[in-house]
Amino acid sequence: MVPPLLQVRGVTRRFAGLVAVNAIDLDVAEGELVSVIGPNGAGKSTLFNLISGLDRPNVGTVHFAGQDVTGLRPERLAALGLARTFQHGRVFGNLSVIDNVLVGAHVRLRCVRPAVPLLGPLIELGLAAWRPAAVRAEEQSLRADAEAILALFGDRLLPRRDQPAYSLSYANRRRLEIARALALHPRLLLMDEPTAGMNESETAEMQVLIGRLKASGQTLLLIEHKLEMVMRLSDRVLAMDDGQRIAEGLPGRVRNDPAVIEAYLGHHALGSAEPVA
Predict the structure, then answer these.
(1) Which tens digit of pLDDT belongs to each residue from 149-190?
(2) pTM of the entire structure?
(3) Rounded to the nearest 5 degrees, what angle is found at the Cα of 6, between the Cα atoms of 83 and 218?
(4) Distance (Å, rounded) from C-alpha 271 to C-alpha 67?
(5) Is 90 exceeded by the pLDDT of residue 132?
(6) 201: Cβ–Cβ under 8 A, 6 or more apart, which residues?
(7) How far apart are the C-alpha atoms of 124 and 132, rounded to whole Å?
(8) In terms of Cα–Cα distance, which of 187, 102, 85, 186 is closest to 147?
(9) What are phi and psi of 63, to 5 degrees?
(10) Res. 7: pLDDT tops 80
């Protein structure tokens, strides 16, 4: 059997007397889209922080691409092919749109990142100043790839590629953050509420984009409150409440699970769409 691309076992995170994540197990196979749902405060973003290296579990392990990466720093995980977006979009406002995307390709640099102890940074500085043919060719290749990624968003980003990111609308900043993560060419992309703050039409566009990423074979782990989208896109769903797993499985089964319905009562409705078989 092929092991999962991501394997989380018994992960627990405590903050003083609060158990934010309690003994969570999670597998994500290559090419799968798994969603994590639950009311606010359920521990979803904390789980993402533990997987992506922004925080370290008190107990439990995280394996990615066959390696134990528990507590590994985010830049090390990025080099292994794990990218992440955040609940509140984070972009470099003073950089252009395309330069924001190019930042995401940093782990793919080869010509200007000599693996030479101690002298590496000096050599890198010299190569950046001298710009030999190999460096120029790599830059052109990465820039072409960045433009192809921007084109995934239709006319939302590509016509604005030379504009500063601070000039973008809220929805376009969220799109730009995803574009930057895709520039990593990740094996696994974690998306934390990609439609947060978006209106109905913007949400529909994001659903189409995520569907295209899934169809292309991109492995995705998604936190999302808009459950109609979750039900349509997900292969499997993990439901959390108070830091614990309360249900896991096919979207329709999780949606109709009594524990999930109880967790959402008083928080928000599960939605009006018919259950998915």
Answers:
(1) 999 999 999 999 999 999 999 999 999 999 999 999 999 999
(2) 0.89
(3) 55
(4) 39
(5) no
(6) none
(7) 12
(8) 102
(9) -115, 135
(10) yes
**Average pLDDT value for residue range 43-51:** 97
Residue 132 sits at φ, ψ, to 5 deg, of -65, 175
Six token digits for residue 262? 């109880």
**Three-state SS annotation for 58-125:** CEEEEEECCEECCCCCHHHHHHHCEEECCCCCCCCCCCEHHHHHHHCCHHHCCCCCCCCCCCHHHHHH
d(CA 212, CA 82): 19
With beta carbons less than 8 A apart as the criterion, state whether 70 and 56 touch: yes
What band does 273 get if pLDDT is binned at 50, 70 and 90?
Answer: very low
Domains parsed from the chain with CATH numbers:
1-91+168-277 (3.40.50.300), 97-165 (no CATH)
